[in-house]
Amino acid sequence: MITLEKIIKETILATGKRSLITDQTAILNKQNFLLKNSLLTLKNSPETFSKLYLCSMDITTNKRGFTLKPYMIWGLLMLIYFAVGIQHSFRLGVYMSFLFTLMQFTIYILSNRFLIPAFFEKNKSKYYLLSGLLLLITVSFFTGIDQIIGDKHFPVSPKPPQPGLIFPIFLHLVLCFVALWISIAKYLIEKEKKTKIEIEELKREKAESELKFLKTQINPHFLFNALNNVYTMTYIGDKSAHEKIAMLSDMLRYVLYDCESDLIPLKKEIDYIVSYIEFQQMKTEKKQNITFLCNIENENFLIAPMLLIPFIENGFKHSKIEKDKSGFVDIFLSQTNKKFSFVIKNSVTSEEPAIASPKEKGIGIENVKSRLNLLYPRKYLLDVRSEEHEHFVYLELSGNESRRKI
Q1: Which of 133, 140, 359, 362 has its CA 20 to 30 A from that of 265?
Q2: CA distance 97 to 79
Q3: What is the pLDDT of residues 28-58, one digit of tens each?
């Protein structure tokens, strides 16, 4: 049997649960700080430099998912140098393909495996100095090899005028510098991709924490007022008190447990709304001007929990229906196929402005807007309008069943 003591315990549990808001706010603030820092790091990185080679690096993966392995790229370079050298002789083509590829490979590996990890982020001046020394040593070494064995064993026919050392040194320097540049571009691109992955992860964690935070912002005042009404009914011996206690228990169970899910069947949300309206009606002996109509094809249609209640609470709050005889609250729900719509119209007393100032707006409506942006991105329509004596809200959700959960 459901007792009043049980209701009180569940209400205390709900109140204690909301004490977690402070901790969750701290978590959200920390995640926002990390997310902003990550975005700032990505923004201030040498993105312009890396994007110059982004296209050239992205040729490793085409739209069909085929991936060019590193050894395939080096093999392609060898073929290019071979094609240049073979115009003079086959032996020269083989020699150029091995000499130039090995020279660039040496620069690329030493820079990518040793210099960049050790010095690029920690001490760029030292990195550039060591890279300059690496270029000087590598160019000198391979130019010496070219001068010693190139002309003797791999002659060019017809033999061009003797260019001296200026042209070979310049050619080798350009090839080595390109290899060094590509190694830096590869590092920056990989770093940028890693930063983007971290940002997406932070966004996902932030969204999850934000959803949990928003769910804890349910206003408990109505539940305490309802509990007080039930207590009065029990005290005076009203025969329907036990039924109201069971109804309030179901409402608390819905708030405490069912709302933990991202999505719940529409029927549960409707049951909560019906109970909410019934408790609102208990505030006055005369029947209030409340209309609640439903046109539901599928009661198991999935919807975010407590998504509609803030609008309904707001409607009853501003209509002052229990005091104003001309006040009204009209609620309409419709669900057809994969489309759901919600409409609420309520009167606004002359004492209260139709459009509340930012300070007067509660967290409930902002809560709903934030949840809509997180759970139904580009899949909802929200229209909130206020006139002199009437307030209107229209909410439409579409395609939630195909939406991926956060």
Answers
A1: 362
A2: 7
A3: 555 555 445 544 444 444 444 344 344 444 4
Cross-strand bridge partners of residue 293: 332
Q: Say which residues have a Cβ less than 8 Å from residue 263's Cβ, sequence separation at least 6.
A: 302, 303, 304, 305, 400, 405
Query: Which residue, 177, 184, 209, is CA-closest to 52?
Result: 184
Burial degree of 265 (CB within 10 A; 0-12, 13-18, 19+): middle
Q: What is the DSSP string of 64-106?
A: T--B--HHHHHHHHHHHHHHHHTTT-HHHHHHHHHHHHHHHHH
Average pLDDT rounded to a whole number, residues 229-242: 80
Tokens describing residue 126: 């030292």
Closest CA to 316 of 233, 221, 215: 221
Region 202-216 average pLDDT: 69
H or E segment and range at residue 117: none
Cα separation, 283 vs 239, in Å, equals: 17
Query: Residue 213: CB partners within 8 Å, gap ≥ 6?
Result: 21, 24, 25, 28
> For residue 314, what pLDDT is reported?
87
pLDDT score, position 20: 45
Specify the pLDDT at position 294. Answer: 92
Angle between helices 4-17 and 221-236 (to 10 degrees): 170
Burial bucket for residue 329 (CB in 10 Å: 0-12, 13-18, 19+): buried
| Residues recorded for the chain | 406
- What is the per-residue pLDDT across 331-362, written as a single tens digit (0 to 9) for each? 999 998 888 999 999 998 766 554 444 444 55
Q: What is the DSSP letter of 61?
A: B
Taking Cα atoms as reference points, which of 310, 298, 294 lies closest to residue 265? 298
How far apart are the C-alpha atoms of 29 and 24, rounded to whole Å?
Answer: 9
From residue 68, how far is each of 43, 78, 109, 112 by CA, in Å? 29, 15, 18, 19
Task: With CA atoms as reference, report the closest residue to 226 among 279, 287, 288.
Answer: 279
Q: Determine the distance from the C-alpha atom of residue 215 to the mean position of all C-alpha atoms in its chain, rounded to a whole number.
A: 18
In the structure encoding, which two tokens stand for residue 246, read together? 């069971």
| DSSP symbol at 121 | T
At residue 205's C-alpha, the angle toward residues 204 and 208, to 5°, is: 90
